[in-house]
Amino acid sequence: MSEIHDPADCNTMTEVRAGVDDVDRQVVALLKRRFGYMDAAARIKPDRSAVRDEWRKADVLSKVDDTAAALGLDRALMARLYEDLIETSIAHELEVFDLTRG
Fold it and tell me: What positions does the domain Chorismate mutase occupy (predicted)?
């Protein structure tokens, strides 16, 4: 595997791609962990109607916005990504709920 450089230190597309691949491996591992929490939520929530929690969704989006702002990231981009992630997480949680308890 190629040495991983900071983005500002990349001079070739090989270095850029190695960095992206490394980040993607980490992101996938973190998503596995995040979806593990969705599995736990499906196990813990009292009924199917509790799976969709609009207050919690708004809370997560607010925290993401705060973090994006603090890091100087495009807040609208992060909001779009997290909107998709949250909705996908809810769909997954509903599926797990139905498979295990429905």
Answer: 7-97
